[in-house]
From TrEMBL:
Organism: Mytilus galloprovincialis (Mediterranean mussel)
Primary localization: membrane
Membrane-spanning residues: 23-47
Similarity-based family: Belongs to the band 7/mec-2 family.
Protein name according to UniProt: Erythrocyte band 7 integral membrane protein
SUPFAM superfamilies recorded: Band 7/SPFH domain
Location of this chain's protein in the cell: Membrane
Cellular component annotations (GO), alphabetically ordered: plasma membrane
Domain Band: 42-201
UniProt entry keywords in alphabetical sequence: Membrane, Transmembrane, Transmembrane helix
UniProt-listed PROSITE patterns: BAND_7
Keyword Transmembrane helix applies: yes
């Protein structure tokens, strides 16, 4: 990623330490030699694999960039260093009360995953990188969601997260910070609006259930009509259906069935 360094961005000075600085450096080396090996405890520092050290000598950043990982050497009384953690940091954005485009007040919170890619810029260009990123994320969250409708906030969280990531990444680039991911954690609606949405969803489900039941009745009626037409065209089918019904009744109720008339006589009536 290209660094967005404008004309106002602070640059590391390449000027030398000057005459007084050289004298002080000589004295510092002399003290290190005089008190050797005890001075090694003050001169040798170690940073971990995930850390870098930005060294300041007489208030100026040493050329060559941040040191590490491993061991490095500093001069007592002249050098100062700051450790910078390069691991990804998760910053919680506290819930923000936001008025949406359609005049609905919602509370939205998010989480920002960011990491430092330039330790020197993160030290000299911003006082507190993590706190500045959190404050900027809260402001960006309010600005972005203020232009969205409530339905867009509820359904298009991914697009909102991508938009916030692009804005934050552009703003934090001069600080040496890369925004890796933005997630919308929760969207809390007012209680009255929640009840109204629940009632609307329940009414929609009931309407859909009635439509499905009506379609089922229609299909059943068509099937019965087709069966009746087939049985009307074949008297034998009526007799078989009659016998099947009697068999079902006998097997389920376990009762004695008396036929008042022979089936042949019923067939004769059917022909008339």
């Amino acid at each position: 990623m290209e660094s967005n360094k404008g004309p106002d961005a602070r640059q590391v000075s390449d000027d030398g330490p000057g005459c007084c600085g050289c004298i002080l450096m000589g004295l510092s080396y002399f003290i290190v030699v005089i008190f050797f090996p005890f001075s090694l405890a003050m001169c040798i520092k170690i940073v971990q694999e995930y850390e870098r050290a930005v060294i300041f000598r007489l208030g100026r950043v040493l050329p060559g960039g941040a040191k590490g990982p491993g061991m490095f050497f500093i001069l007592p009384c002249l050098d100062d260093f700051k450790k910078v953690d390069l691991r990804t940091v998760a910053n919680d954005v506290p819930p923000q009360e936001i008025l949406t485009k359609d005049s609905v007040t919602v509370a939205v919170d998010a989480v920002i995953y960011s990491s430092i890619y330039d330790p020197t810029m993160s030290v000299i260009n911003v006082e507190n990188a993590d706190a500045s990123t959190r404050l900027l994320a809260a402001t960006t969250l309010r600005n972005v969601l203020g232009t969205k409708n409530m339905s867009e906030i509820l359904s298009d969280r991914d697009s909102i997260a991508h938009q916030m990531k692009a804005l934050l990444d552009q703003a934090t680039d001069p600080w040496g910070i890369r925004v890796e991911r933005v997630e919308i954690k929760d969207v809390r609606l007012p209680m009255q609006l929640q009840r109204a949405m629940a009632a609307e969803a329940e009414a929609s489900r009931e309407a859909r259930a009635k439509v499905i039941a009506a379609e089922g009745e229609q299909h059943a009626s068509l099937a019965l009509k087709e069966a009746a037409d087939i049985m009307a065209s074949s008297p034998a089918a009526i007799q078989l259906r009659y016998l099947q019904t009697l068999s079902t009744i006998a097997s389920e109720k376990n009762s004695t069935i008396i036929f008042p008339l022979p089936i042949d006589m019923l067939a004769a009536f059917g022909k008339k």
